[in-house]
Amino acid sequence: MAPPEPVISVICPLCERPIPPAQRDAHHLVPKSCGGRQTAYLHRVCHRQIHALLTEAELARQYATVEALLAHPPLRAFVDWVRTKPDDFFVATRKSARVRRR
Fold first, then answer.
1. In terms of residue numbers, what domain contains 19?
2. What is the pTM of this model?
């Protein structure tokens, strides 16, 4: 019997916490609808918060890097808050009214 394969730890580039496999989402830094191909693995809660706060057009034009995402004040506040939570923490996320209107 072969030994089990080691679990490779993936760190969320936003909140810098290890991502459990069940909470791992691939985020297109530039949305696929805008021609993006490069992805980064994020916590599901971080990924959903990005899409709750920003439109795909904003992501493509202004927030196509992790550094740019962290410079967005409401997203930065969320990341600072979620960093204190356990690695498998998840909370439901609602799109902001501004994003829903677009």
1. 10-101
2. 0.82
